[in-house]
Each structure stands twice: as C-alpha cells, then as structure tokens.
Amino acid sequence: MTPSSSTPTRRVGPDKGAEGKPAASTKADERPTITLPARALRTRRVAKAAPASSRVTTPRGEPRPARRRARDERELVVELRGVSKQYGPGDNGLERVTFAVRRQEMVFLVGPTGSGKSTIMRLLIKELDPSEGVVRVAGRDLSKIERKKAPYYRRNVGVVFQDFKLLPNRTVYDNVAYALQVTGASRKQIRGTLPDILRMTGLSTKLHNYPHQLSGGEQQRVAVARAFVSHPPLLLADEPTGNLDPETSIGIMQLLYRINRAGTTVMIATHDRDMVDRMRRRVIELRRGRIVRDEATGLYASEENTAELGERLREETIEAARGVLGPKR
Ligand code: ADP
Ligand code: MG
To answer: Which of 111, 242, 260, 277 has its CB 3.0 to 4.6 Å from that of 266, i.e. a possible disulfide?
Structure first.
C-alpha cells in the first residue's frame, strides 16, 4: 500500500471525468451500484482519453488497460458528482459540487460558516439526500440504500463532531465499546480490541472516567477512538477542533493524521484555515455551497511521522502567533 501512488486529480468546478462507474464494491455485502455495460464504459473513456502525460496512460504513453482503470476507480472512497442540496426555496446548501477522494487521502474541507461543509458531511452519512447529483462512498451510490438501512451503512463511516456527542452516563471504556457492540462484536472481541485503540488515543489511564470528568481534548480523543475502533474505511470529522485550544487541537490533528497513515481515508471540515495550510494536505475550499479551490498542499509532508508533524505544527503555530509568518504561508 503506497499512499503516494494514489495522488488524486485536482479539479475545480464541474467535473469532466469518468461519470457512471461500474460496481466498485470491495466487500461481499455491498451491492452493485450503477450497472452500465462494460463495453459502453470503455468506449466512453477511451473517447475521453487525455494527453499522453496524463495519468490514464502507462509510462510508455499507452492507454491504461481497462482493468487497471477499473481498479483505480475502486480506489475512490468518496465521490460527489454534480451534487446540489436545497434546504428550501432559494436556500442552497450546495451547488453542483464535484470531487473525488481516493483511498488513504487526508482532505480538509474549509470555508466560512454556512459554506456547505456540514452539508457534505451529512450527505456522506446519508443523513441528507441530495436534491441533485450522485453521492458515492466506496463505489456505492447512497441513493440506492433504503433509508431504513442507513444505520447499517453508517457503521462503515466513523464520525467525529465538534461537540463530541459522547454518552454522558457511560465511561470512556463503555463509550468506545458501544461502537463495537452495535456491530455485533462479542465481549471477548471488544476486550481484545479496546486496549490498542485506547493506547493509541492516549486514554489508557482514563478508562473508568465519565465524560464530565475529562477535558475537552480528552473527550474529543474518546470520540475519535469511538469513530475509529471498528477501523472504518472512511472517517469524517466535522469541526473536530472547533471547541479546543490550539495546543489541544494539534494533538487531535496528530491523532487524525495517524489514523490516516494507518490506512483510513480522512475528511476534516474546519474553518481553521491556518491550521489546515500548516498540515500541508489536500484542501477543498467552499464558498456559498460551491468549490472555489481544490489543491494538494505539499504532499511531501507524507514523509513526516506523527511526532514530527506535531513538532512542526507547534513551531509554526508559535511563529504565526508572533506574526512572523503572517496568516498564510
Ligand atoms: P457549514 O458547515 O460550512 O457552516 P452548512 O453545510 O451547515 O455550512 O450550511 C450551508 C448552508 O445551508 C447554510 O448557509 C444554510 O443556509 C443552509 N442550511 C444548512 N442546514 C440547514 C437546515 N437544516 N435548514 C435550512 N437550511 C440549512
Ligand atoms: Mg458546519
């Protein structure tokens, strides 16, 4: 598994790429999504063939075999194609938003309050349906999932919120264990899994504490542990550092970074643009429901380990606070 081999295509504005993809399920229980004849797809894609330098060709400049392209598409964990969401007449949450996120990417959704970040998150957990367009997760068209089956679908997506949303009457251990219980894990499996995740999130000494006995940062660590304990292919975090101070925020970002490096695709919505620019990962910026920026910000940072990332963020946060760097690098 090489994260660097999955560098995504960056696009701003309406997408012109491969619409109508075949079933891209990787799990046995996932049903096929759109079923177009393979031949029709092939013809269409070849007709749209990009220049020889593009990534749809082999190093020799030959078109990639169809099988390889199909595999590339299975790498797409999140896909929004022409997605609009109207909450009411003239109340546009999103307008024709198109982007794709590959396996193991870490993507930041940024933009001011009301720009549509949470709307995207809520579409991805099928809490909302789009007014127009297609939302796919791991190749699966979410409109094909019956609403009553949405809770089962959601087990494949870890979610972290700004306000933690922990169960107040349960301990740290039980909050995290609960996320496994609902997937049908046995007590034994839970006992075997939890120590690792609690160690990873730095909660080993707080197992028996209740949420109100924890700091904000610790509560958010519990929320992250709960979201990640079943190792979902996709983890969404909506303003995860919104209630935290800068130092605590760095810790949470380090944790999400670590989860990403362990193989989970991570999408983080935040309005903290400075922090995001320092992370040097892909940034999708929204304004009034539209994408206005989609760029890979210095992917070389993938060479960093979690401790180095934290150290750099800390130094840059201090320097930025001193006004040495200004608001943006
Ligand atoms: P963000 O998370 O970036 O702050 P949202 O996705 O929550 O933005 O909201 C985007 C826009 O969608 C808002 O400006 C608002 O007008 C609209 N919106 C969001 N949620 C609702 C809702 N429940 N009812 C009506 N309009 C909504
Ligand atoms: Mg929001």
So the answer is: 260
